[in-house]
């Protein structure tokens, strides 16, 4: 993995992304604290979070279509610059009277962010090479989890010591640092965008038509259908887990908010360890097998997390399980991203990852709704057991249905993706 970081272009992308993610976590932790302190309202805090989440659902797939038509590096530079500028109105928020500014900023930031994720996912295979995809995605996941550990801890401290203005300026600075690092890239001629795909507007296709074409392409390739269906079910579980974990920890296990907050950090530690391990075994395990095995193990450990503390109430054991579950959690995401990148040609990656982003957002919202509707009736332990079982079964399903895909994916690493524009 270290060899990848020594490659100029990939190293610049990775370090820029790390700084940006740390800045994001500063604001993601600091902003809810600020809003709740200012208003004393859980509703205002949740509405602020939902406002930033809505663009994921509405625009992710369409943003992916445009990413396929634009220069990915320039798209990321412009998007990050707009994200930095969009944050500046938050400097005018000092009381509840200016809270409406915050909602507008959250929504606009969510809109511009939609272009960053598919552009980055489409750019990684070009910079790292098909044979280094697992290692590259492992490094990306390591940066995500490191920033989560470091940025979330720092965010709570800085919002108290520097106030909202200080955190906003630091996050804006992190976006600008990404722009600088991306501008320093020197892409070889063969990695430059094709002439017919570059430009500010969709030349040959209307946006809606290209979006529909992207959905049809997904339905034409069996492995893509399986991955999308698998992730849809998992994200419903993620929505359930996000709502009911706090209920499980506080009402069932009778721990407080401090323990609840520590569990995410424990999983982050496990994910960092998992990133190092998955990056090390990268070429030895095909991405389809990595996805299936890790999804199954994640579900199995999830079931242990829910059931073991009911019979053995030990906090250190709970922490240990959350550390362990972080390893297959990262492996599952790396395997999924690598499969999508291997299966799809560069000309289509943006819209595929954009559609993936929209599906995730929609299913998480459905999961949250199900948790709210049935959580009190069925109880947190039962619903969380269902969530863990879905993960384990989805892993087995992938192993059974995509086992034959392994040889195809190995072949695509040296030849061409299975799905190309015009197929």
Automatic annotation (TrEMBL):
Single Gene Ontology MF annotation: transmembrane transporter activity
GO cellular component: plasma membrane
UniProt keywords, alphabetically: Cell membrane, Membrane, Transmembrane, Transmembrane helix, Transport
Transmembrane segments: 12-35, 47-67, 76-94, 224-249, 255-278, 290-310, 316-340, 352-374, 386-409
PROSITE patterns, A to Z: MFS
Subcellular location: Cell membrane
Top-rank lineage group of the source organism: Bacteria
Membrane-topology descriptor: Multi-pass membrane protein
UniProt keyword annotation of Transport present: yes
Pfam family, one: MFS_3
Xref: InterPro entries: MFS_dom, MFS_trans_sf, TM_effector
Domain Major facilitator superfamily (MFS) profile residues, every copy: 9-406
Name recorded for this polypeptide: MFS transporter
Organism phylogeny: Bacteria, Bacillati, Chloroflexota, Ktedonobacteria, Ktedonobacterales
């Amino acid at each position: 993995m270290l060899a990848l970081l020594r490659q100029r272009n990939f190293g610049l992308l990775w370090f820029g992304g790390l700084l940006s993610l740390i800045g994001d976590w500063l604001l993601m932790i600091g902003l809810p604290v600020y809003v709740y302190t200012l208003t004393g309202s859980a509703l205002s805090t949740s509405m602020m979070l939902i406002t930033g989440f809505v663009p994921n659902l509405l625009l992710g797939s369409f943003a992916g279509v445009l990413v396929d038509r634009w220069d990915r590096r320039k798209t990321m530079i412009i998007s990050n610059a707009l994200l930095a500028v969009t944050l500046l109105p938050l400097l005018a928020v000092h009381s509840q009277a200016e809270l409406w500014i915050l909602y507008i900023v959250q929504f606009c930031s969510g809109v511009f962010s939609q272009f960053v994720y598919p552009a980055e996912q489409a750019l990684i295979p070009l910079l790292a090479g098909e044979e280094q995809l697992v290692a590259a995605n492992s490094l990306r996941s390591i940066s995500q989890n490191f920033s989560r550990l470091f940025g979330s801890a720092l965010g709570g401290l800085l919002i108290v010591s520097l106030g909202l203005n200080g955190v906003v300026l630091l996050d804006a600075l992190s976006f600008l640092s990404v722009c600088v690092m991306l501008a320093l890239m020197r892409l070889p001629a063969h990695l430059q965008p094709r002439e017919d795909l570059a430009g500010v507007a969709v030349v040959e296709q209307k946006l809606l038509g290209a979006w529909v074409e992207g959905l049809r392409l997904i339905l034409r390739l069996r492995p893509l259908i399986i991955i999308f269906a698998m992730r849809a079910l998992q994200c419903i579980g993620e929505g359930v887990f996000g709502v009911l974990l706090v209920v499980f920890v506080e009402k069932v296990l009778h721990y407080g908010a401090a323990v609840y907050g520590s569990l995410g950090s424990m999983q982050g530690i496990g994910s960092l360890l998992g990133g190092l391990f998955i990056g090390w075994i990268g070429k030895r395990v095909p991405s389809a097998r990595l996805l299936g095995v890790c999804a199954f193990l994640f579900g199995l450990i999830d079931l242990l997390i829910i059931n073991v503390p009911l019979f053995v109430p030990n906090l250190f054991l709970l922490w240990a399980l959350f550390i362990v579950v972080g390893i297959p959690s990262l492996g599952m995401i790396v395997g999924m991203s690598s499969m999508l990148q291997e299966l799809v040609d560069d000309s289509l990656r943006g819209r595929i990852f954009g559609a993936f982003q929209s599906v995730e957002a929609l299913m998480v919202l459905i999961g949250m709704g199900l948790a709210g509707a049935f959580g009190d009736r069925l109880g947190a332990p039962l619903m969380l057991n269902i969530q863990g079982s879905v993960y384990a079964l989805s892993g087995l399903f992938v192993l059974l249905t995509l086992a034959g895909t392994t040889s195809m994916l190995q072949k695509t690493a040296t030849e061409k993706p299975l799905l190309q524009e015009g197929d």
